[in-house]
Specification:
Length: 125
């Protein structure tokens, strides 16, 4: 009887933690993603003006990315290659704008260390 009760309690705990994990897996808004990206850019030691411009660029990038994906889903064109091409196009435009703001050292650190960590990751199954 004790084993059954213990097993029941363990099952309930597992169910609750699974539900809570699913709630946290919701997509972030462009504002949340931009804020997260800016936190990861702390090692660049951006000046206030550069930081403000960078934040606007990142917010524009994530908003455009979200809108492009919504349009593709709405049109029924959820082709992986099309999505990757659009994402690359938006990232290239973002990087061109960031080149105007960052110093050479900051740009190198962005390309080598920070930007790869911002790329969407495929969930491991």
């Amino acid at each position: 009887m004790k084993k059954q009760i213990l097993l029941l309690v363990a099952g309930i705990c597992f169910s609750i933690t699974s539900l809570m994990a699913q709630e946290n897996m919701q997509r972030q808004t462009p504002e949340e993603r931009a804020k997260s990206a800016m936190e990861k850019m702390a090692p660049l030691n951006l000046e206030a003006e550069a930081k403000t411009k960078t934040e606007v660029i990142m917010l524009d990038f994530y908003t455009a990315q979200q809108n492009a994906m919504k349009e593709m889903r709405a049109s029924g064109d959820v082709n992986r290659e099309t999505m990757m091409a659009k994402r690359k196009e938006l990232a290239d435009a973002r990087d061109a704008k960031l080149k105007l703001i960052f110093t050479t050292e900051q740009l190198k650190k962005w390309v080598d260390e920070i930007e790869p960590g911002l790329r969407p990751q495929r969930p491991k199954n």
